[in-house]
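REVIEWER CHECKLIST
Item 1: Sequence provided? yes
Item 2: Single chain? yes
Item 3: Sequence as submitted:
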Amino acid sequence: MILGIDVSTYLEQQRLTHQVYRKDGKIIDPFEIFKSQGVTHIRTRIWNNPHNEKGEDYLGGTCDLDNFINLYRHLKKYDFKYLVDFHYSDFWTDPSKQFMPKAWKDLTFEELLDAVYLFTRDSLKRIKDEGVDVTHVQIGNEITHGMLWPHGELRYKEERRPSFRKLSALLKSGINGVKEVYPNAEIIIHLEQSYDQACYDEFIYELRENGVQFDIMGSSYYPFWHHGFDEYFANQDMIKNKYHLKTMTCEVGYPFTLKDYHLKNDDKAKHLVINEDNLKDFIHYLPSPISKAGQASFMKEFLALARKHGLDAVYYWEPLWVPGEGICWASEDAQKYQNLKVKDSRNEWANQCMFDYDGEANPILDEYK
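Item 4: Structure as written out by the authors:
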């Protein structure tokens, strides 16, 4: 089973805070530890143009192609392999937002198909020129409701959703771009709602009906949103047994505290994604206590089940994204791009790192092996 990490924000973290990581009080190189414990792959997202009209960064890692190349150069000595995660947007994508890149917003559907193909092909050509060992490419990120809205949006609750035809055409354009440059790279389709067998069953069936050729069904698994181990792994078993696809956990994470963090310029505590106030309102499942020991226990059990059920890969999402001055998930202009007016801008995911707010390793680091 492949063990990987998504550290797409790492270079921005270092640029803004020069973050130091410690274990038992001693300064460490976290990548040396990851490598020694069997991590072989890095997953890195690519956004089209995460900058405003003045060229200022959208933050959240500002994950353009340059960030990917620079991260590869920074980590080259560790000899990792890579999973390229194309979002096909200028910023974050997930089931609630799949915004068209600014440069593509006025394209016709036929023009958009060409743009997806060319962006995928040309990005991967530059990556290949660097000598990157790309073994997997993800076409879209958490595309449960489609991507590149409105063209590739899936109309939810429809019987036999006809919009799969357009989504499938977009996916095939991206896949064609991959195969021209990395013909042996495995193609991943990535959804969330990872407890919902009916959702995955419909999705895979429709993509196959529309001629989409892919190798791996990827999923996100955050148990507080995506229910229990039994439901998650039953879905993975269905995918393998019914469709004979490989299965991959593209993202997994678990909190180690519900307490917020404070920065020097904070005027008040602001909410983390998982916090004391919202825990009772929408959390579906907590397999372990929310504590440092509980985070480690969750990961130990999850990896054991992943091996038992034959998952082909597991990636921990942003284990190094420690909070700090200037570290945030979105600039003001990035929020405008996504039509968000009241969202807090700072790092809401900080309590799910493998390191605490001071950069000290949590026990989960020893279990990720």
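Item 5: Key structural point noted by reviewer: The chain has a mean pLDDT of 94.
Item 6: Recommendation: ____
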